[in-house]
Structures are given as C-alpha cells and as structure tokens.
Design brief:
The chain is an alpha/beta fold and 474 residues long. The protein is built from eight helices and 26 strands.
Length: 474
C-alpha cells in the first residue's frame, strides 16, 4: 500500500488516488510560483507573494530550503535563488569570512534560529491562505552551482563537502551524507506540525552525467531517513520524487506523489502529457512542478506569455494531472507580488483553469483516451471523464518551441481559423455539450444531444488557438 499522509495533512484522496485531499476535501493544486528562493532570500516579502497567489485562487508553491544555492546572473538579475549576502539557510554563519557570495562561511555544527523562525512563519502564512508548500531538499549540483552550497568544503568551516558535484549525489562521501541526512531530519522536525507540507527529495536528479544506480541508492537512503524521522513524530506527510531517465521511484510504495517537469523530454526529464502517459497507471497523483522559466527563458513583456502558460497548464490538468506549477520570474525582491499586466493575465488564466475543473465533480473522473475517436484537423487533445456522466476536453493547435535554446520546453501557439469536427463514443444517454473559450471561460455555444451508444459527431464553433468542451449528462 502506498504510504499516505495523516488525516488532515495534504495527501492522496481515498476516493480517487490521482488527486489530493486536504482537510477532508479533494483539491487540485494550481499555481504560478516564484523560483524556489522565497525563504532563503532574506529580503523577499513572502506575505505579499502569498496575497497575490490567494487573490487568484492559486494554492501551491515550492521551495528549496538551503542545500542548493545559485549564483547571481545565471538566470536573471533578481533571481530569488541567488540572494548574495542576503542568503539565509538552516546553518548558522561562523566568524570566518570567505563565503563566495558574501558574508562569513557556515558552521554546519550549528543551526540558525532566525532561519527556522522564517521557515515556520512562511509555512504558517501559506496555511492561512490555504496554500500548499512543497519542500524540495536538493537539486542536482551542477558544477558551477556546487561551490555556492553551504555543504561545499569552501563554504563551511567543518571540512565537509570535499568532493566534486557528481559525488554529492551518491553515498560515497560519508561525512557529506551524514550532513545531508541531518539537514533533512532538521527540516522535517521543524515542519512536522504543519498540514500544508509535501516533502520532495531531489529535483533534476540525472540532468547531468551521473551513475544512475548511485543516485538511486542515495535518494532511497533519504526516503528511508524521512520515514524514520516521521515515525517518531505526530504527523505523516506525503513524499515525492521526480522521475528522470535512469532513476524511477514511480512504483515505490514509499513515494506518494510522482513529479514531472516540462512538456517533453528535456535534459532527461519526462513531463507534461508524456509524463501522464508513462505514470498515470501507477494510480498516484502526477504533478508537473516546473515549466519554461518566465522572464528568463521567455523574456520580458511579450503577448506570448499568457497563451504559452494556458496551453501547458490546461493540457496537463485536463489530461488528468493533480498539480501544476508555472515557474515565474516576476515574483522577486523588488516586486514580490509580481504586479504587472502580463502576470495578472497569467494568474487569471490559471484561476480560470481551476474554475473550469472545479465545475465538475472531478474526483470521480479519470484520464480518458477512448471517448474521442477522431478530430478532423490536426490537434492535441486531452480529456478526463466519468463515462456516461461527465467529460472534460481540452484541444489546442500548437507545437513544441524550436526557436528557444531550451528546445521543446514550451509550446509555440499556432493561431488559425479552426472549427473542427470531432467524433465521440459516448455512453447511451442525453447530454448537454458546452463549448468554452479557455482564455475567458466565455461560452461559445451550448447544445443538447442524444447518444445511442454509437459514434456521435459534433462540429466545434470557430476559435483561433484552443477550446474546452464540457459534456454533462442531462
């Protein structure tokens, strides 16, 4: 049996294991989250950030709690993962100068009380707004990032981390592994009393050349540690791990949430619809928790931003996903509420996705690859259904981007004048069919039909890029 969370904590629904439950109710997690540094960037005002998410009904965010730190200028000038001298992590600063990003080196034998006060308040403020926090302990240590980590030998006074970035992701360096496990234990102990927490172990675990077996054993040790620690604490939380080529915990009963990233295979990652196709049969929630980085990979003020987010989020969630996070560089220290026209439109679009899905009794619905038999023009179509009762369909005309250096990491809108005919194999009965514009939730057309259990053909009203279809039994 898959390990689940305590009763009131965010966990797997007993009614439908493809979705979450939280405080006795099934929920979807949909958001556009900052770049994981909301806690470790001391000057970031997370209250304003949470208020912005809550205003649009966005209910999820993700953090790296300190084991992984970036350097300024890698992705964008104000990146929260590269706060320079304003970095705050679980370990206290020593009296020894020389940390490469400013300030003194770290003393791994001492925890920093200020950090844990900030972490706990962060989770508390999120809980007040019904926002779930996904804590990801580590990212793979790329060669240029590794010296920024407090666990690197040049960043601490304890001599820990005297190895390369590849060894970091293994059990080969025993002193380093001891500190990694102590760090995981401390984070879990400090956050165990919260219900709005998910623990994720390693992001992008095989995104550079590593020994897959060593990485697998390293992550497995961390999973065992988390279970051991929670075994002596009051609450149990759902555990998550990203799947990448070479490391797969999808069928592991210790892991309750399957994590994916991006719309296709990017740097060994399998996300989006390919992720759903690969992992849905494990009967666990499947999450897409990272997408092309707005205001970094996709630069600045561009009208492409809003439809790109819509295409990916609607396709994944209407295809049976449980959680979606659009990685968002608009939320930074100078503008923690991400207040600009494009970001407001982006968040409104995600709010409309949640509204659309919650207009169904979605907990009774599962991924459906059988009902839609044919589309008269080329399109990408995904759907969920409770056959004979309710069907949600999303169709778009786009293709993986080939212009950006991160090839295939997001969709390129392919605008046109579309009115395709679709062929459905519906159960016998009377239905109401509603054609909806995803951009605004405007009803384009509504008709009543009767199915005799054989093929039913419908013609969609005209649209330019994408359309949602809601079918409910009368």
């Amino acid at each position: 049996m898959v390990r689940n969370a305590s009763e009131n904590a965010i966990g797997i629904s007993e009614k439908n294991p493809h979705y979450f439950r939280y405080k006795g109710k099934e929920i979807l997690l949909i958001t556009s989250g900052e770049h994981y540094g909301a806690v470790i960037s001391k000057k970031f005002d997370y209250v304003k950030y949470f208020d912005a998410l809550a205003e649009y009904g966005l209910n999820y965010t993700r953090i790296y709690p300190g084991g992984f730190v970036e350097y300024a200028g890698k992705w964008m000038p104000d990146d929260n993962m590269a706060p320079g001298p304003d970095l705050i992590v679980p370990w206290a600063r020593s009296d020894v100068p020389g940390y490469k990003n400013g300030g003194n080196k770290f003393d791994l034998s001492k925890w920093d009380p200020e950090y844990f006060t900030r972490l706990r308040d962060f989770i508390h403020q999120a809980a007040k707004r019904e926002i779930i926090i996904e804590i990801c302990f580590f990212n793979c240590q790329f060669v240029d990032y590794w010296p920024n980590s407090p666990l690197h030998k040049d960043a601490n006074i304890n001599g820990v981390g005297d190895c390369d970035h590849i060894t970091f992701q293994s059990l080969d360096n025993e002193p380093l592994v001891r500190e990694q496990l102590k760090y995981i234990e401390k984070i879990i102990v400090e956050t165990n009393d919260f219900d709005n927490v998910i623990y994720e172990f390693v992001d992008e675990c095989t995104s550079h050349p590593v020994n897959n077996q060593k990485v697998y054993l390293w992550i497995s040790r961390m999973i065992d540690k988390a279970i051991e620690v929670e075994g002596r604490l009051p609450k149990k939380h759902i555990l998550a791990q990203q799947h990448e080529l070479g490391v797969d915990f999808s069928g592991d009963e210790r892991i309750g949430l399957i994590v994916t990233q991006y719309i296709g295979m990017l740097n060994r990652q399998i996300g989006g619809v390919p992720g759903l196709n690969n992992y849905y049969a494990y009967n666990k929630p499947v999450e897409e928790n990272e997408t092309a980085y707005y205001n970094s990979w996709i630069k600045g003020e561009t009208d492409e931003i809003v439809p790109i987010a819509r295409l990916e989020s609607w396709e994944f969630m209407v295809g049976g996903g449980a959680a979606f996070n659009q990685l968002n560089g608009y939320f930074v220290v100078p503008n923690p509420s991400g207040n600009n026209e494009y970001n407001r439109q982006l968040m409104q679009g995600l709010k409309e996705l949640r509204t659309f899905l919650e207009s169904f009794d979605f907990v009774k619905m599962t991924r459906d690859k059988d009902t839609l038999c044919n589309v008269s023009v080329g399109a990408s179509v995904n759907m969920i259904s409770e056959k004979g009762r309710q069907y949600a369909i999303y169709m778009h005309h786009s293709f993986p981007n080939l212009r950006n250096s991160y090839r295939g990491s997001f969709y390129e809108p392919n605008y046109g004048d579309y009115c395709p005919a679709i062929t459905l194999l519906l159960d016998e009965g009377d239905y109401t069919v509603t054609f909806i514009e995803p951009e605004s939730l405007k009803v384009l057309e509504e008709i009543n039909i009767t199915s005799d259990g054989a093929e039913t053909k419908l013609v969609c009203p005209r649209y330019k890029l994408d359309i949602a279809i809601k079918i409910t039994a009368r």
